[in-house]
Amino acid sequence: MIRVLLGLVKGGIVGAAVGFAAWRVGFGGGATAWLVYGAVGFLVGIVCGKPPWRQETIWTSVVKGVLGMALCMGLFWVAQKAFGGVQAPAEILAPLGISGGQAVVKLPVLLAPLIGILYGVFVEIDDGGKSAAKAKPAKPI
After folding, report:
1. Is 139 helix (H, G, I), strand (E, B) or coil?
2. Has residue 17 been placed in a domain?
3. Using CA atoms, how far apart are residues 3 and 7, in angstroms rounded to an integer?
4. What domain range is 30 assigned to?
5. SS3 of 137, please?
6. Can you give the pTM of this predicted structure?
7. For 115-131, what is each residue's pLDDT tens digit?
8. Could you tell me which of 21, 63, 121, 136 has the fewest CB atoms within 10 Å of its CB?
9. Distances (CA, A) of 125 to 2, 117, 121, 140
10. What are 87's strand-pairing partners?
11. Does some domain include residue 97?
């Protein structure tokens, strides 16, 4: 249960930070949106799970990041297909200073934290737990 909460928090923070920065710069749609969600996946893969300095090799963190990049880009593609025409409610957008009537997939400030949370929970559950205790070999008779 604690791993799920850690994945929620870490993935949400990374996704929100990258999504907010991308929204401020104007990388909400087009080819740059793919880069935004690739960056979310890469950074969540590095941050979630065991920290890079506790891994056996640095390549473990790099592989988690590259896999996260591909997976989060795939999640963005699924979101475009499933929620492409869904408009974000104006009540949610008004405190952020965004005008209403925009599609959810064009707003990385809303979609990036959700995708970051999904991948963050997966990585925390997969990589963050302690390994099972190794069985002691039986003594020969």
Report:
1. coil
2. yes
3. 6
4. 2-80+105-127
5. coil
6. 0.82
7. 999 999 999 998 765 65
8. 136
9. 9, 12, 6, 37
10. 103
11. no
Token pair 């925390």 in the structure block, residue: 124
Residue 43 covered by a domain: yes
Answer whether residue 95 is part of any domain. no
Structural domains of the chain, count: 1
Give the closest residue to 79 by CA, choosing from 106, 47, 49. Answer: 106
> Shortest CA distance to 128 belongs to which of 39, 38, 51, 21?
51
SS3 assignment for 42-110: HHHHHHCCCCHHHCCCHHHHHHHHHHHHHHHHHHHHHHHHHHCCCECCHHHHHHHCCCCCCEHHHCHHH
Cα 101 to chain center, whole Å?
26
Residue pLDDT, tens place only, 29-81: 888 999 999 999 999 999 998 888 888 888 888 999 999 999 999 999 999 99
What residues does 103 pair with on adjacent strands? 87
Q: Which two tokens stand for residue 96?
A: 């952020």
Helix (H, G, I), strand (E, B) or coil at 22: helix
